[in-house]
Design a protein that fits this description.
Elements (H helix, E strand, L loop, with lengths): L15 E5 L6 H10 L7 E3 L2 E3 L13 E3 L2 H9 L3 E7 L2 E6 H9 L3 E5 L2 H10 L4 E7 L3 H11 L5 H16 L6 E4 L3 H16 L2
Parallel strand pairs: 1-7, 1-8, 2-7, 3-4, 8-9
Antiparallel strand pairs: 3-6, 5-6
Helix pairs in contact: 1-7, 5-6
Length: 202
């Protein structure tokens, strides 16, 4: 049985902006800039995910993440209360259906970073409300340099695997509504701002 959206359809809703891109593309930095953008203040909120990993120093419960046990995560997943999920370094992460739909009903716009699988899953659930944006690095060579700089202690084979994964992700970027070429961070941030503003007022 597939998860179904449970939103009413009698009035205008907010929108879901999903940003994807390979490791090193700059998607997280661009999303952080989006939340600090004065033109979008109070109109775009950060999606808060479930996670089973321990809370880190400085992280706020129910603000940065909803921290839950693995047992509770799996129960929520079985109950269709998680609209997309992934497992990373032995911990689960997932987007809560209730939180997303509450924000949309309040006409709030939500932004989050997801991989292709999560992005397309949410697009399937909320096709008229979801806007997908893919961040493209200047080149594979530049992307490899960024990955190497971020992971200077990572084995060469793992770096090669990340680059191969990035190439696969780039080949699927045409499935997204928008693509941003991130050669210059300031220009890419401006393009992301313009896309979000245009989509909000469409």
């Amino acid at each position: 049985m597939k998860i179904k959206a449970t939103l009413s359809t009698d009035r205008q809703k907010g929108k879901i902006f999903i940003i994807s891109g390979p490791s090193g593309s700059g998607k997280t930095t661009l999303l952080q800039r989006l939340f600090k953008n004065k033109k979008l203040k109070n109109s775009v909120v950060k999606s808060i995910s479930f996670t089973t990993r321990p809370r880190r120093s400085g992280e706020r419960k129910n603000k940065d993440y909803f921290f839950i046990s693995e047992k509770e995560f799996k129960q929520k997943r079985s109950a269709k209360k998680i609209i997309e999920w992934t497992k990373y370094l032995s911990y689960y992460y997932g987007t809560p259906k209730e939180f997303v739909e509450q924000q949309l009903e309040k006409e709030k716009n939500i932004a989050l970073c997801l991989d292709k699988k999560g992005a397309l899953n949410i697009k399937r659930l909320y096709p008229k409300l979801t806007v997908t944006i893919f961040i493209i690095p200047p080149s594979i060579e530049e992307l490899q340099k960024r990955i190497e700089a971020r992971c200077n202690k990572t084995k060469k084979e793992e770096i090669k695997n990340r680059v191969r994964l990035a190439q696969r992700e780039l080949s699927l970027s045409r499935k997204y509504d928008h693509r941003i070429f991130n050669k210059n961070l300031n220009l890419a941030a401006k393009e992301l701002q313009d896309i979000v503003l245009n989509e909000i007022h469409a």
